[in-house]
From TrEMBL, chain A:
Protein name: CoA transferase subunit A
GO MF terms held by the record: CoA-transferase activity
InterPro entries: CoA_trans_fam_I, NagB/RpiA_transferase-like
The entry's keywords: Transferase
Highest taxon listed in the record's lineage: Bacteria
Keyword Ribosomal protein listed: no
Keyword match Nucleus: no
UniProtKB/TrEMBL annotation, chain B:
UniProt keyword annotations, A-Z: Transferase
Organism: Haloechinothrix aidingensis
Single GO MF annotation: CoA-transferase activity
Domain of life: Bacteria
InterPro entries noted in UniProt: CoA_trans_fam_I, NagB/RpiA_transferase-like
Family to which the UniProt record says this protein belongs: Belongs to the 3-oxoacid CoA-transferase subunit B family.
SMART domains attached to this UniProt entry: CoA_trans (SM00882)
Protein name: CoA-transferase subunit beta
Length: 267, 265
């Protein structure tokens, strides 16, 4: 059963140095507050997994939390590049960053395999691209029934997955809706999970299109209103597009970034 | 945004970027489905749906099937997409159930680099993979969009930096190394059938699969297009001129982007 705890307690207990950590949320419901807590706790040598490393991973990479990134698209959506990510790849600042690079379809299937308790997933993908030549976790496989050549990608089973959802009840059952991305798969694939929520309520009134994660599938729930900002929580907040645009200038320069980190996260 | 403005008789003044978005929008047929990439493709697809193609089904990789946004989303996951969609599904479902079996008519993509066979690079530029000169965002949904949609349109700002003789990394396959390559690789869709830039419109030669300049936009010369191409450009025997944006198209586009200097994706 999920324990309802503070965010600081959840991160302190469940995220360790050297862990493989997935923060998921596909543009919507990104667990940004949890990412900042991981920075504050000074976690290091993490293998960060995320389909769309955007601002929160730019911040965690710039803060020195990451040793490796497993991903499929690293950018500031609708704005441009991630400058801390680029600085880490191009200049090893503040530390070298190993990459394991996939496509979205490949990452989604890796989580599905992880959630399904299978060693790998099979898909049509990557054929003819240069990705298999730089990523060892993309391999050809022959269908045993038809002989067709397909692609296999290994399961992702993070040590801990962190997501943000709209609500949980007091028993720790989690409810989310809107664009639900790959969060269910990422939680079910993980050894441990942390869910931050906009609010903890007595009852979870049904919402169209909802996904419910039963309490016994989640390790810890923490109430963090606004915990997805600058992304959004449908029904609670809107996407702060200005923040995404302003991040471009803040992140471009190491000193400006470090000032931001000190004032906005560490203070 | 180039800032250059073109005045054509009977039509409103427009920028080269606006011409590109309008030409890209016109390529989308009403009643079809379009897997919409981030940036310029999203601008074009939303413009098409507001104009000649009101029954265009917009599919975003974030899980919104049949999104009908009333303003241009900044990202592929803005709330307006889910709120207006016919169906909202998880990301594994988008790729496995909807894209992979070939249910989607058009994949609409952009590129940092494009070669003569419509192969796309959005991964790294210069150096080598481990030590690139420029690290780009990467693949996202594009490799499988390029593989599995029935056909692919590419919209990209053209220069010698983007139209290159050889892409530094093949992120998404166009026609590979030429005609027949897609079939050899087992890629189900037809691949790029049209490339729209701020200078003109290109289609692959049916015999060689190499991109051929078929149309220039108003005020653009073939020589200008050659100069903005990093290979010996194939040019159609008769090069047409794109119809300039109509006042209605420009009004609709500017309502989406916030004006000629607004966000174009």
């Amino acid at each position: 059963m999920a324990e309802i705890v503070t965010l600081a307690e959840a991160v302190t207990e469940l995220v360790n140095d050297g862990d493989q950590v997935a923060l998921e949320g596909f543009t919507h419901l990104i667990p940004v507050a949890a990412g900042h807590e991981i920075i504050r706790r000074g976690r290091r040598d993490l293998t960060l997994v995320r389909m769309t490393p955007d601002i929160v991973y730019d911040q965690m990479i710039g803060a020195g939390c990451a040793r490796k990134l497993v991903f499929s698209w690293g950018g500031n959506p609708g704005v441009g590049s991630l400058h801390r990510f680029r600085d880490a790849v191009q200049n090893a600042w503040p530390a070298p960053l190993e990459l394991e690079e996939h496509s979205h379809a490949g990452m989604a299937n890796r989580y599905v395999a992880g959630a399904s308790g299978l060693p790998f997933a099979v898909m049509r993908g990557y054929t003819g691209t240069d990705l298999p030549s730089v990523t060892t976790t993309i391999k050809p496989i022959t269908c045993p029934f038809t002989g067709e050549r397909l692609t296999a990608v290994p399961a992702i089973n993070p040590d801990v997955t962190v997501i943000h959802a709209q609500r949980a009840d007091r028993a720790g059952n989690v409810q989310m809706w809107g664009l639900v991305g790959v969060q269910k798969e990422a939680v079910l694939a993980a050894g441990r999970s942390i869910v931050t929520v906009e609010e903890v309520t007595d009852e979870l009134a049904p919402v169209p299109g909802q996904v419910v994660l039963p309490s016994w599938a989640v390790t810890a729930v923490a109430e963090v209103a606004g915990g997805a900002h600058p992304s959004y929580a449908q029904g609670y907040s809107d996407r702060d597009n200005t923040y995404y645009q302003e991040w471009d200038a803040i992140s471009r320069d190491r000193a400006t970034f470090e000032n931001w980190l000190t004032e906005a996260v560490l203070a | 945004m180039t800032g250059t403005s073109v005045e054509t008789s009977g039509h409103a003044a427009h920028t080269a970027s606006e011409m590109m978005s309008v030409a890209a929008a016109r390529a989308l047929r009403d009643g079809t489905s379009c897997f919409v990439g981030i940036g310029l493709p999203s601008t074009a697809a939303n413009l098409a749906r507001r104009g000649h193609a009101p029954n265009l089904t917009l599919i975003y990789e974030s899980g919104a099937l049949g999104a009908k946004p009333d303003s241009l989303p900044l990202s592929i996951g803005d709330g307006i997409l889910a709120e207006t969609a016919d169906a909202v599904v998880g990301v594994p479902e988008v790729f496995n159930y909807w894209l992979q079996p070939g249910r989607i008519d058009v994949g609409f993509l952009s590129a940092a680099q494009l070669d003569r066979f419509g192969n796309i690079n959005t991964t790294v530029i210069g150096g080598d993979y481990a030590n690139p000169r420029v690290r780009l965002p990467g693949a996202g949904g594009a490799p499988e969009i390029a593989a599995s949609c029935r056909e692919v349109f590419i919209v990209v700002k053209q220069s010698r930096r983007s139209f290159v003789d050889k892409v530094d990394f093949v992120t998404s396959v166009g026609h590979g190394s030429g005609a027949g390559d897609r079939a050899r690789l087992g890629l189900p869709g037809a691949g790029p059938t049209m490339v729209i830039t701020d200078l003109g419109v290109f289609r692959p030669d049916p015999g060689t699969a190499e991109l051929v300049l078929e149309q220039v936009h108003p005020g653009v010369t073939v020589q200008q297009v050659r100069e903005a191409t990093g290979w010996e450009l194939a040019v159609a025997s008769e090069v047409g001129t794109t119809t300039a944006p109509t006042a209605g198209e420009l009004t609709a586009l500017r309502a989406l982007t916030g004006g000629p200097d607004g966000n174009d994706g």
